[in-house]
Design brief:
Layout (H helix, E strand, L loop, with lengths): L2 E2 H4 L5 E12 L2 E6 L1 E2 L13 E3 L2 E9 L2 E6 L8 E6 L1 H25 L3 E7 L2 E6 L5 H17 L3 E4 L23 E4 L3 E4 L14 E9 L2 E8 H22 L6 H32 L8 E4 L5 H11 L6 E7 L3 E7 L5 H12 L1 E6 L2 E6 L3 H10 L1
Helix pairs in contact: 2-3, 5-6
Length: 382
């Protein structure tokens, strides 16, 4: 059975070990050692990667109690090899995992909610709780979590005996009876966990809860910790600085400036809508009644504006067809009529112009991929 060095020292980066087996499988090599500092994927914690005896460790996982190192090259059984884990990845994972324990411990102490789902990925840590916590409470939890980081309290591990275990209070997703490893954050949380953690909370640096999503039986939060949280802060600070420069306002006033800008935009859009409606009315008023179908092209109209145009023009002709778009991306369309059932006519047009859409007998909407010249030829012959 592999000796798990990551239990003895979570900060161990390099080690020497004996290769106990090497089996080729699916283009890679599955290698076992007499001892290892590589943590295998499990409990929501990603696997360690790194190098081993000159080959790359691509993935690490458990199989029947043995730690399997999936590598891109073979190693000789019985040889002594030097292992080196990717420390940046390991340390970031430890920061994130211990931060999750802190937050989950606070939520459990305050509300009695259990952590029922946990995943660490590139986008951060995802945690599901079996009860709802609102945004204001989460903000308060975040504050307390960072105070625990700043206090720099110890994080320790223990393996209580089966006799001791029933008398201990700890969090766990499973009913455990033996080989239980408890991770204790002094004065904060005790939780059954198999993953490596930092030795003191100060190593985490900072914890940030970014969002919460209400779910059927609780809430899902996304959080970042340590270097990942710092990098995210830097990215967001850069965005605020750029917005501040563009709007010529102090950084702490960007939200108000953006709000005013959006209000101005909404006012202008409302005025523009009124102008377009008047243009449509004027454009249609000068058209003489005709027994031919009328076709309009308005590059910047949205569907609602196309509907206004087609509905106004249908009083002057059998079918009013309004299009908006360009030859490269295609055209939105609206067909309107007060005399013709447009459902079949639109199907015919869609077949002829690579289109799709539908609607009521008097009004149909859709899109076509044909060029303007093809659309015009179709309606000349229709």
């Amino acid at each position: 059975m592999t000796q798990k060095l990551y239990y003895e020292d979570s900060h161990l980066r390099e080690f020497d070990a004996v290769v106990t087996s090497c089996v080729q499988r699916d283009g890679t090599f599955e290698i076992t050692l007499d001892k290892t500092a590589f943590f295998p994927e499990g409990g929501g914690n990603p696997a360690d990667v790194g190098s081993l005896g000159g080959v790359h460790v691509l993935h690490t996982f458990l199989r029947e109690g043995e730690v399997i190192h999936r590598c891109d090259g073979a190693l000789e059984t019985g040889s002594v090899v030097h292992g080196s884990i990717c420390w940046e990845r390991r340390f970031s994972n430890m920061q994130s995992h211990t931060a999750e324990h802190i937050v989950s411990g606070i939520v459990h102490r305050r509300h009695g909610y259990a952590n029922v789902g946990f995943h660490m990925g590139e986008d951060g840590v995802i945690v599901d709780f079996d009860g709802f916590v609102d945004q204001e409470e989460l903000s308060d939890i975040q504050r307390e979590a960072n105070e625990i980081v700043w206090r720099d309290v110890p994080v320790t591990q223990s393996f209580p005996s089966p006799q001791e275990l029933p008398h201990l209070e700890y969090r766990s997703k499973l009913e455990l009876t033996e080989n239980v490893r408890l991770v204790t954050i002094q004065g904060v949380d005790v939780c059954a966990c198999c993953a490596p953690h930092v030795k003191r909370t100060g190593e985490i640096g900072v914890i940030k809860i970014f969002e919460s999503i209400r779910r059927k039986n609780g809430v899902r939060i996304r959080m970042l910790a340590g270097e990942r949280a710092y990098e995210d802060y830097q990215k967001r600070a850069g965005s605020v600085a750029e917005i501040s420069s563009l709007l010529s306002v102090p950084q702490d006033e960007t939200a108000g400036a953006v709000k005013r800008l959006l209000e101005e935009r909404d006012g202008l859009l409302y005025e523009l809508g009124g102008l377009k409606r008047r243009i449509i009315r004027n454009e249609v008023d000068i058209i003489q009644d005709t027994d031919k179908n009328l076709v309009f092209f308005e590059p910047d109209f949205d569907v609602k504006e196309l509907q206004l145009l087609a509905n106004a023009a249908k009083e002057k002709c059998p079918i009013a067809a309004a299009f908006s778009g360009d030859d490269e991306t295609g055209y939105k369309y609206v067909l309107a009529s007060g005399a013709v059932d447009l459902r079949e006519r639109s199907r015919e047009m869609n077949r002829a112009l690579q289109g799709r859409g539908g609607g009521r007998p008097e009004l149909v909407t859709g899109t076509v991929k044909a060029a303007r010249a093809q659309i015009e030829r179709y309606w000349e012959q229709a």
